[in-house]
TrEMBL record:
Signal peptide: none annotated. One of its GO terms (biological process) is 2-deoxyribose 1-phosphate catabolic process. It is found in: Cytoplasm. It comes from Flavisolibacter ginsenosidimutans. Its EC number is 4.1.2.4. This is Deoxyribose-phosphate aldolase.
Length: 222
């Protein structure tokens, strides 16, 4: 597979415009990226722009801090699906996790994964590995492997350290083969992208996707 097929071409800045979304959708089609990842506000626009292509529409839920009530995330997810999202990148409730309220974390993933499973959508759970210890990353893997989750994702790109080879390797070691890994945050070169793939990532969230596939260095946090 080419690097392009691993990439979720991403734009999640709060200053994103429809012109930006139009541009990344055009680039995603041209380079055959796996998906575009856009703010919820632009899901319906991206759906229209990509309706005749194989590129998936992804968006974020509970972004970027994850401490929204799970009922809010459920409504966000439902709206995103109604507006045409194929894939949902959901930030876990890190505050609940850090408070050792694992019952809440499990309730959250239970209701969200039921919705995405019922609607045959792809669910990616963002654990924000850069603010977790190795032991906490392993605990996340232990929790989420019991639910119909398609991906665990390293980072939002907006908090703590972004993607790391170490985190991807650790996640791959402690997840079943049925759950894939998406690495995201700070991926700006083809070399780093390949290192993450070699470590076990099967999807990469990048705002520098075009530069990466051209073998150049990109800019941007995400």
């Amino acid at each position: 597979m080419s690097l392009a097929q691993f990439i979720d071409h991403t734009i999640l800045k709060n200053t994103t415009t429809i012109a930006d979304v139009d541009k990344i959708c055009e680039e995603a089609v041209h380079h055959s990226f796996a998906a575009v990842c856009v703010p919820p506000y632009f899901v319906s626009d991206a759906r229209k722009l990509l309706e005749n292509s194989a590129v998936k529409v992804a968006t974020v839920i509970g972004f970027p801090f994850g401490y929204h009530h799970y009922k809010t995330k459920l409504e966000e997810t439902n709206i995103a699906i109604e507006e045409g999202a194929d894939e949902l990148d959901v930030v876990m409730n890190i505050a609940a996790f850090k408070s050792n309220d694992l019952a809440y974390v499990e309730t959250e993933i239970g209701v969200l994964s039921k919705l995405t499973s019922d609607k045959s959508k792809t669910l990616k759970v963002i654990i924000e590995s850069g603010v977790l210890s190795d032991e906490e990353i392993v605990r996340c893997c232990e929790i989420y492997q019991h639910y119909p989750v398609q991906f665990l994702k390293t980072s939002t790109g907006f908090g703590g350290e972004g993607a790391s080879v170490h985190a991807v390797q650790l996640m791959r070691k402690h997840l079943p083969a049925s759950i894939q890994i998406k690495a995201s945050g700070g991926i700006r070169t083809a070399e780093f992208a390949q290192q993450l793939i070699d470590a076990g990532a099967t999807r990469l969230g990048c705002s520098a996707g075009v530069a990466i596939v051209k073998g150049e260095s990109g800019s941007g946090n995400y």
